[in-house]
Predict the 3D structure of the following.
Amino acid sequence: MKIVCIGGGPAGLYFGLLMKLRHPAHQITVVERNKPYDTFGWGVVFSDATMDNMRRCDPVTAAEVEQAFNHWDDIELHFKGEVFRSGGHGFVGIGRKRLLNILQARCEALGVELVFECDATSDADYPDADLVIASDGINSRVRTAHADVFRPDIVTRPNRYIWLGTPRLYDAFTFLFEKTEHGWFQAHVYKFDANTSTFIIECPEHVWLAHGLDRATTDESIAFCEQLFAANLQGAPLLSNARHLRGSAWLNFQRVTCVQWSFFNGHSQVVLMGDAVHTAHFAIGSGTKLAIEDAIELAGLLHAAGHGAGSLPAVLQQYQAVRNVDVLRLQNAAWNAMAWFEVCGERYCDQLPGPQFMYSMLTRSQRISHENLRLRDAAWLGGFELWFAQQAGLNVPDGRPAPPPMFTPYTARGLTLKNRVVVSPMAQYKAVDGIPGDWHLMHLGARALGGAGLVMAEMTCTSADARITPGCPGLWTDEQGAAWARIVDFVHAHSDAAIGMQIGHAGPKGSTTAPWDGAGADQPLATGNWPLLSASAVPYLPDGQVPQAMTRADMDRVRDDFVAATRRAAAAGFDWLELHCAHGYLLSAFLSPLTNRRGDAYGGSLDNRLRYPLEVFAAARAAWPADRPMSVRISAVDWVDGGTTPDDAVAIARAFKAAGADMVDCSSGQVSADQKPSYGRMYQVPFADRIRQEAGIATIAVGAISEADHVNSIIAAGRADLCAIARPHLANPAWTLTEAARIGYTPQPWPAPYRSAKSQLEAGFARAAAALAPVKVES
Ligand SMILES: Cc1cc2nc3c(=O)[nH]c(=O)nc-3n(C[C@H](O)[C@H](O)[C@H](O)COP(=O)(O)OP(=O)(O)OC[C@H]3O[C@@H](n4cnc5c(N)ncnc54)[C@H](O)[C@@H]3O)c2cc1C
Ligand SMILES: Cc1cc2nc3c(=O)[nH]c(=O)nc-3n(C[C@H](O)[C@H](O)[C@H](O)COP(=O)(O)O)c2cc1C
């Protein structure tokens, strides 16, 4: 075959040499617009896994690359005058120039034709090529010319960065944070050869503008950065090797993805490779790794298919299918890491204490968890756990390990929870006339014995017409109050869990069947319906029951019902009260612009939409004992255009905080039947994180949190103060006890009659863990 690679970066060169190595009869040309051995850029980072792949594909190149490597293990953070360092991270760095030189020399040795100083105008320049590889980098001309085929999606990110070098040598992957009068800057620094370190400086656009860096020349920018990081640079200069770039030396990262990776241009098959088809932010340094792995995959597939031009269309499809999975996974992790650096100045730098800031930074991609950090550096994590436990008020005896963050206590007002696990409220639809019965005693009692710090009762309604279904429990009669007291007494008598009550009003989502009855959840009752109330006459389902917009008299009555329910909850002995303002029920229907269309003082602006929920909150808070905590559950996003946004959620949280709320329980959605949620592991945690840092109120994270490792990671990073676990508690009432055993946390107390199961469970998990060698995730 005749193959032309447009672009002699890592992708084009490595693909060229691998193909020639496997099938020397191929005629392969790499066209590069730069001069030989002329490139800009400093060091790039590789992973151990990429090196393994390279060794397998071409040991000669791999050996040369390895010789030029700088390997380092530690990550060091310089933050507010303190230095934090943890090990076991395993990076290798190499100068980009050095890498390209090795690849160029190997190409030449194998007989790949290298054509330098040739600016290819298009793939059509090479009509006799069977295959054109568009390895022409992030601004790929080929991709742009055929945008209708490749359908690229290019997202320009808001932060500004400048890629510099310095002769100062760093023996760890180093992160520097410096605050100016306009905001935070951070530097990502790593040594890549005997004389030089890469020094990337990044800041938000508004900070960059405030310093006038948009008008600065490259030299002025360098002088500014040298001054900013002077203490750390210790007199070493910062250097640029990109003076040839037009415009500002400060760039915005562009995330590139493409729907289609290849096509036939009438003469040749054309395929995108490397940065031309996908980019990954330097926050996890994986662009070169992806480019190299693209080359390995395509060369491997062509080899397996016998190197014939006839196989190209099928092979190119396969190449996209295989690589896309890996690329998306990495882009996802890179996105999380990038997003962390974009907001850290606003969200974390001024909010988190140093050790927690370090932890948050290390887990920024959300691929590295608590237990993964233990694998990397058990001593560092042990020290962090001790610090965290001390912050939580624990007195850890000398020489004894501290409990993991999940098992540290949490105090709100006069209540101390023994750990950070909450059994999330879960409607059972098993009450009769609003009276909780044996089912509820068994359900909540079993979960209280199961190790959680706080067991929340399900949404409990403030009047008969506030119910979701006829099976919902209530607190509008003394008989109901007494039935709840029986459950509370059981929990207090037989466990050291606290028990919380969630009060709510179904609003527009009332008068429906239980999920397993009739037509299913949210569907109107066939008979026996009751009239519904809401902020506005907007039905939840398009053809559903239409609620009446509340009058002021309705609002008075419902507020008073909430107060009466609160008094009964207090009298029943509940330790915690939560006001349900989420999921499209009555108070949520006031908050969301999708369901609140009122033209009076209770609709329109967010302040107005908050007015009634805040009035109810204030009235309930006043009726709730001052030493007991009260939280509010909100839908932090509606997942519908025009609905509540995460920005609104921060404002909502601030308002409830000002009204005396102790915590915000951060759920999402269920406000509109048109919602399009993005589900995934721990998918609502970012809302809890943002609200906690920006509104300055404690939060509960909830949603697809299913392992102790998740809880530890969330709590340790300060993304939330408590974690609510719902469905896993349906499957396993003793979820907390089970997870403690799974991670080997043996000091976890068990109910006395169950103790004989404890060591058996712990031994079983220990055996299973020993059989499975733990895997360290690449950063
Ligand atoms: C600040 C920063 C830090 C980074 N840090 C890392 C890191 O630590 N680790 C890492 O792995 N990656 C890093 N990267 C990304 C990395 O540089 C790229 O992902 C990687 O080089 C992609 O390889 P490539 O071959 O696809 O493209 P490139 O390396 O961009 O190569 C494309 C080549 O095509 C040539 N070209 C373009 N158009 C034409 C044309 N019309 N005719 C002829 N030649 C043409 C260009 O001159 C260039 O040589 C970083 C990037 C930035 C911006
Ligand atoms: C059966 C069931 C009933 C639920 N009932 C309630 C409820 O009464 N009040 C509430 O705020 N959330 C309720 N939820 C939502 C959960 O509290 C939780 O937010 C959600 O299930 C996500 O957590 P998970 O992924 O751990 O299940 C319910 C969830 C389930 C599965």
